[in-house]
Fold these 2 entries.
Entry 1:
Amino acid sequence: MRFEARKKIPLLVLLCTPITAVIIALVLCSGLIVASGASVIEAYTLVVKGSLGSMFALSETFARATPLILTGLAAATAFRAKLWNIGMEGQLYAGALITAVLGGGILSVITASWVLIPILMFVGAVAGALLMLGPAWLKVRFNIDEVVVTLLLNFIMLLFVSMMIEGPMRDPLGFGWPQSAPVVDEAVLPKLVARTRLHSGLLIGLGAAVLLWFMNSRATWGYESKAVGINSLASHFAGLPVKWIMLRAGIISGMLAGLAGTCEVIGLKGYMTLDISPGYGYTGIVVAMLGQLHPIGVVVSAVFVAGVFVGADAMGRTLGVPSYIADIVVAVSLLCVLIGMFLAQYRVRR
Amino acid sequence: MSPNGSRNTVLRLNEITKCFGTLRANDCISLEVQRGEVLALLGENGAGKTTLMNILFGHYVADSGSAEVFGKILPPGSPRSALASAIGMVHQHFNLADNLSVIENVMIGTEPLLAVRSKHAEARRRLAELTERFGLLLNADAIVGTLSVGERQRVEILKTLYRKAQILILDEPTAVLTPQETESLFTTLGRLNQEGLSIVFISHKLDEVMRVSDRVVVLRAGQVVAERETGSTTRNELAELMVGREVPQPLRKPQKAGDSVFELREVSVREGSKPLLDGINLIVRESEILGIAGVSGNGQKVLADLGSGLLCPNDGKLRLFGADVTTPRPRNFVRAGVARIPEDRHASGIMTDMAIWENMISERYRDEFSTWGLIRRGKAINETKKIIHDFDVHCEGPMALTGQLSGGNIQKLILGRALALQPKLIVAIQPTRGLDVGAVAYVHNQLLEARRQGVGVLLISEDLDELLALCDRIGVMYQGKLTPTKITESLSIQGIGMLMAGQWQEIGYAV
């Protein structure tokens, strides 16, 4: 069996492949649902209802999608330049931590929301970028593997956050729970839909996606990243500043992940906890790959992944099927999409 | 086709046809290989040589037609049965495990996967016998990764002999070899031939075909256009048969050189304490082509990097268009008017997964093809269309992926990109390596045309014929040193050969 590259892939095939792949993944996963003793149709109906079936379900799905869009974009930005940032989780926590510190009243001279919120977002993004700056610099200067460095920084960051909110940042009115003092009211992001958890961080994520899409397709910035990602040797020969381009991709990537942390603190919770992210940084990698590193694809796949998680929670509550099934659905979907895209690009010959 | 040669015919292809989409890669090809002969399969890139051999070897299945080995029909699509019927193939790109030893590489695949113990001693004995018999000198325990390209090729040949191949197919075997290694390959082929093996030698290099083969089958556009006894044909006839028209020979008219455009004075480059370039002096002038000869790996790559702005010398002066350059940068070189043609077009010339238009602007996207940080796509595409038209690039258009083009077309694109700058200096290293006759002639004429218009050219090549045909002056590199350049007409091939081998004192040069 051999694989021949197809000369041209029709756009329709490119669009249909991920959809078909996800359907195949759902069929594959139905075996597990049967094994846990529930009806497949009923289970998937509940997943769809629980994620899209009501205003509340929709708001939950999009609230969950918001950080995933940002971490997904962070991964896509770095991966496009072949910089493997696995540290979005840590960068998210860095952004969240600094937001909780500054939002907690230190900046009380600023009383206007429209000034305070952008400041917090900027600072959160910078914190994420600073955490990524080290690994990216080590990569371009000494060719030290960024996967290992960013991955290990995640644990360091998580332990640091733990130290801070168990210690100096612990909320004195928090009944001893490991959480920070809440941010001031002026720092809280407005809700998009009243009495739900859906906040205007979603708009930030969508705005970032559109901006990145534009930059990738039209700007020298995106051209440079793509060129370096495809062939850094040829890019260097042509005179592109390869090291700077990789460093820049790392900085933007860290900024997006840090921004995700800020949005979770001032949008969703209002304070900082140790479990502010149930692995959004890692799931962002899956989201980016599912979305083929395309900013709009990232938005679609973030909503899909969030929907599967939210829907699976609802299903788990009703049917007693373990909601871990959501992880399996997402993982199998990713594999199916990757295989599907491979088959779309190559023809199998005997 | 000779109907009488049936007894000695070891391999017969009957009317093989293979289509890829609308392209007829092989169109009703029939040929025979006799016992103990060297058959050359001559054709340009894309003529269908490799497709034909891949069908024979079971990598492709033919749409129609059949292959017979020793009178038996070969089942299509089965490399295993091709191997079993004593056909061995040495590909252009070797299939060797770099981290294993020679003997392990030779034994791979000849033993059952779950064999209780491997028959190392027996294999070693047979390998020793084979190396002895065919003069393929190799240390059986050497790790393949440490071997030179020529030695690796010997391992590939040994692999096929170890499997008792009677018919050996070599696909472009000299493409990766130095002149010396080529020489030693030809000696080996002679030995194999004497022992009664049949050899199919796939090539587009006329001189090699003339030298090594007994019979030539010429392929063009998927068809057999001619079959000749090598003894009764000429190089020119084969060239015409292969290309289908007369091949223009490069014609260099005498011309007066102008001012210096590129100059190195006592330039040294070191890697750690190891000298890569050692006290190099050279001047390239307007309206002349300066050639640098030498066996690969004697510092030519470093010299090319210097001329491309990729490298800063440790010592000495680098002057470009009369001005000192202290911090060379590729972008500054391009802006100053240096056209650069890299050695490895796929690795450093282009981004294969990008569209042609994106590759065409890679050197200048900051200058002409963007405003306010946004790419001027329309302008870039128009410029690309112009390059495609002017340089006769065969492709679907500016939006096609560059990696899908043939080597010759990619080289035309790189030339087009470089020459679109209206350069005053061209730095080219191995610009015709791996190209077919037509594309080579095209590149040569472009370089000569640039020279006529007053451009200075630094041409670094391992192809002596190319250098002698094109260059006004030639210098030879050996172990990071460069001989003083001499007028081409005053040099002999033997003299250059001795300089390439490092025998400088014998001809009166100081080392």
Note: Residues 67-292 of chain A form one domain.
Entry 2:
Amino acid sequence: MTPIIKKSIVGLAMVAISGSASAAGELNLYNWGNYTNPELITKFEKAHDVKVTVTDYDSNDSALAKVKAGGHGFDMVVPSANYMKIWIDEGLLLETRPDQMSNFKNVAKDFNNPVWDPGRRYSVPWQWGTVGMIVDTSVYKGDINTSALFLDPPDELKGKINVPPEMNDVISAAIMYLGGEPCTTDKDLLRKVRDKLVEAKKHWLSMDYGMIEKFAGRDVAASLYWNGAGFRAREKNADVRFGYPQEGFALWMDSVAVLKDAKNADNAKLFQNFVMMPENAALISAFARYANGIDGSDKYMPADMKNAPEIIIDPKLSGAGKFLLACSPKATEMYTAIWTELQK
Amino acid sequence: MSSSIASSKKLFSIYKLPGFNFIAITCFVMLYAPIMILVGYSFNEGSSLALWEGFSLRWYYSAWQNEAVKDATLLSLIIALQASLYSTVLATMAALGTTRTRAFRGQTAIYAMINQPLMVPEIVTAVALLIVFATIKQATGYQGLSYLVIAHTAFCVPFAYLPIRARLEDMDRSLEIAAADLYATPWRCFRRVTLPLLLPGILAGAMLAFVISLDDVVITEFVKSAGQDTLPTFMLGQIRRVITPEMNAIASALLAVSVLMVSLIFLINRKKT
């Protein structure tokens, strides 16, 4: 074989490989607003010669409604864990088998077989976070890794506690504190949950959002809240710490999946594999400020996030984290009744 | 006439009712305080919406530098311009058809139908349009901007129609009748008499339609295709993450445009009387 022919065969082979890996063209990502790092998109566009268009949605419901109606023109969507089952059961997602993709080995073992997408046959981790206790340690010096801080509050915290107006997060935390499983319909346990919450509420200052400012101004000393906010509150008030209740705390996760009627399914699959690369997952985190579920991405994280205890769960406590899924209508009805009573 | 008004004023004046000042002031505070606070914090130096850290224009600058904001603003303006143009033309024709014709059966029904977008909850229209457009999108594969322009035109029609119709009803019919008496053709009469007199109403209607289109969230959110975020839907999307005063800055700018347009409508309408 002459060198020229050899070269051209190698060249052809390379074209063939890159051709199968990168269909030059378009990709339409339908994602939560303010959630997609433009750098990540530029990097993907350059790497695969694809024009990416990002369109925003503001809730799981509106994304679901639009995609179900059809004719939407999107290729990928990023549903939350508690909605993923609906997307899969409605047959809206393409089974892309991320578990067989080359970068799947990077997915952290806590997230490579989630209950809401068993075996990761559809979706790839985007961002995840936790619901725990933000505490001002200048007010309270004890153990912060417990839901007792808002359910059986110590004297130092009484009257300085906030609870967010989020039914599922609050009731699930109380159920887990009393030894139950989220979405339980056990009436005796739920009666205890109700009594505990009603009793504890006397010691709460507020049921509100906007805690970053409240902790910065030292108006509130403890709150059940989200880890990302805990991180930002600590930036403004150095005494703030984030605790993971050992009785059980809620996890949430958004994962990126490909739509069944995607026009650019090949590019979408490339994108799924792309975000499982640690350095790319780190770009997502650097922008949205939450953890990403990809092992090895911490190396590429911004310095302030690398060792942040709000982002990296203490391994001793990580077992207590549970995903909140969509509960049965019966459970939801009972929780709503408790919630209504609590709001009085 | 004027004496009777004066005497009735003595008998009954709403300003003298007990609690008038209190209720009026409460209403104004409730209406404007949140907006004032929003505008105030758009000038915040820090990244907080509740702690004042000094005056700065940095969020206006950062919004100005934000490519996503620029794209969304441009798209909002393109849609609003087209939608206000088309809806004003339609509204003018509708207004002429309901005022410059002999009264016909079903006139009230037609009047109600034209104003339907004012009564029907926006979410109902949005879901209906979502379903219809989804079918068309699937059948044709066309994903362009026309869906948004059509949707906006549809709900802008009554907003353009009302001021135009009001103007037509106020106008002195004798001028048009005189023109007709002097053998002006209906078209010539319209072009030389009706249209010039109607112009302030048309302008007011167009501006109102423009503002309404610019501000729309719900219908746009449901109808938009890939890459078609307008400024309001872009802003709505931002609530997922922490909201910075950049949103306040964008909202304040949008507010300024709306206030400007409404003031212009007011000035135009005042001039003609």
Note: Chain A has two domains: 3-128+253-306, 129-251+314-343.
